[in-house]
């Protein structure tokens, strides 16, 4: 156990999950692995997009903030992919670097290009509301690994949400130009909101019960995965209010067809994966 | 004459000074400075930049423009050592024998 100057924490690390898998103590069933893979891909793809901002943010401080959020998400992705891999005997790196576009299960919002700063904030706002509700509920999953990953992630996504809201307000209530751009960002990302709350169709039948979302922490344990219906209602309550508080208009553009969980993606994902995977594919099997 | 990184008129994020009180500390200590559009964002940026290793429990941010500093060129007179002013220091008392642990 390496010593750090952090106070001792019981937060689950990807390394600890990998150790537990190696010791045959943790093995995800196929449906749970597919579920974890979807959540892991959401976090991985968004983390990569945020990484593209490094050294390009409007200010040094914002470079650090976006980098922090990206690092948090990459941490979630590593844990989730490591756990998913236990079902198939694959590592987090195998899953990240050696799957093609149609094998990626992330929802389409997360692969959307960064656009300008307002586009990125709009994407992050929707993503953070989704993650926040999801991980809060997932803490009560009957799957102990998923519950532990969610417990660690909850604190982090709370902060991501706060960051997005602060910038939504500043851009929305800032100058005429920042207001116009923030509205355009919201309009551009809105079509991908619908897909976030669609049931997980890619999961095999049976074997997965749903966790009913109870906003109080005394909810009854119902199963492994989070029921997305209540998350949708929470989103519909929170986000329009945030948008109008920032002096902006709730978009009315129709939702896109979606299909990320089944491996159907927008044209943005392919080039992103090509860049992300090029080195690993040029030197398969090396350690780094 | 601009300093490196100074973008002149484009610079609309003022400078803030950051003071942190560590979890076991008694007082806030100057940790560094940062740019932020307003005080709310300054506190959040300070959390990002100066408390990544859990070292702080309390953050103060102050606009750099609100701080008045002593004149660095006036060091001599301003901070003149009190040499030769023994009457200012209680150095000539002798300890009473009846008070051993003074």
Mind explaining what this structure looks like?
Chain B: This is Ring-1,2-phenylacetyl-CoA epoxidase subunit PaaB. Chain B: It comes from Herbiconiux ginsengi. Chain B: InterPro entries: PaaB, PaaB_sf. The complex is a heterodimer of chains A (288) and B (102). Chain A has 288 residues and is mainly alpha-helical. Chain A contains 10 helices and 2 strands. Chain A has helices at residues 14-22, 30-51, 60-85, 92-97, 117-138, 144-172, 176-189, 193-196, 228-245, 269-282, and strands at residues 210-211, 225-226. The longest helix of chain A is centred in the middle third of the chain and has 29 residues, at 144-172. The radius of gyration of chain A is 19 Å and the shape is globular. The model of chain A is unreliable at 1-8 and 215-221 (pLDDT under 50). Chain B is built from 2 helices and 3 strands, in the order ββαβα. Chain B has a 3-stranded antiparallel sheet, with helices on one face. Chain B is elongated and about 60 Å long. The termini of chain B are far apart. Mean pLDDT of chain B is 79; it is low at 1-5. The chains are: A mainly alpha (288), B alpha+beta (102). Chains A and B meet through α3 and α6 of A and α1 of B.
Describe how the helices and strands are arranged.
The complex is a heterodimer of chains A (288) and B (102).
Chain A: H1 14-22, H2 30-51, H3 60-85, H4 92-97, H5 117-138, H6 144-172, H7 176-189, H8 193-196, E1 210-211, E2 225-226, H9 228-245, H10 269-282
Parallel strand pairs in A: 1-2
Helix pairs in contact in A: 1-3, 2-3, 3-6, 5-6, 5-7, 5-9, 6-7
Chain B: E1 15-22, E2 29-35, H1 39-50, E3 56-63, H2 75-78
Antiparallel strand pairs in B: 1-2, 1-3
């Amino acid at each position: 156990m390496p010593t750090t100057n952090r106070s001792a924490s019981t937060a689950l690390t990807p390394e600890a999950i990998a150790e537990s898998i190696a010791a045959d103590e943790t093995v995800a069933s196929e449906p749970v692995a597919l579920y974890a893979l979807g959540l892991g891909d959401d976090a991985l793809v968004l983390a990569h997009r945020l990484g593209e901002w490094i050294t390009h943010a409007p200010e040094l401080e914002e470079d650090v903030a976006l980098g922090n959020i990206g690092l948090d998400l990459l941490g979630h992705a590593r844990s989730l992919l490591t756990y998913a891999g236990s079902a198939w005997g694959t590592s987090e790196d195998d899953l990240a670097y050696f799957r093609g576009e149609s094998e990626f299960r992330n929802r389409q919002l997360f692969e959307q290009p960064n656009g300008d700063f307002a586009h990125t904030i709009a994407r992050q706002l929707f993503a953070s509301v989704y993650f926040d509700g999801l991980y809060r509920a997932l803490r009560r999953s009957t799957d102990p690994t998923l519950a532990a990953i969610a417990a660690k992630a909850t604190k982090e996504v709370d902060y991501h949400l706060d960051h997005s809201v602060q910038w939504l307000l500043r851009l929305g209530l800032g100058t005429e130009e920042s207001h116009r751009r923030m509205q355009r960002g919201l309009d551009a990302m809105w079509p991908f909101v619908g897909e976030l709350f669609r049931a997980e169709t890619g999961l095999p039948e049976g074997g997965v019960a749903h966790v009913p979302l109870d906003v109080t922490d005394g909810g009854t344990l119902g199963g492994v995965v989070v029921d997305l219906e209540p998350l949708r209602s929470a989103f519909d309550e929170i986000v329009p209010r945030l948008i109008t508080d920032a002096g902006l208009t709730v978009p009315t553009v129709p939702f896109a067809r979606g299909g990320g969980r089944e491996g159907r993606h927008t044209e943005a994902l392919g080039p992103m994966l090509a860049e992300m995977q090029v080195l690993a594919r040029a030197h398969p099997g090396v350690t780094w | 004459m601009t300093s490196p990184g100074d973008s002149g008129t484009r610079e609309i994020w003022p400078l803030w000074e950051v003071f942190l009180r560590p979890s076991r500390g008694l007082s806030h200590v100057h940790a560094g400075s940062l740019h932020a559009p307003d005080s709310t964002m300054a506190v959040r940026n300070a959390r990002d930049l100066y408390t990544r290793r859990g070292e702080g429990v309390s953050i103060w941010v102050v606009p750099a423009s609100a701080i008045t500093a002593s004149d660095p060129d006036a060091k001599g007179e301003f901070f003149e050592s009190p040499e030769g002013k023994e009457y200012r220091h209680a150095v000539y008392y002798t300890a009473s024998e009846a008070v051993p642990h003074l």
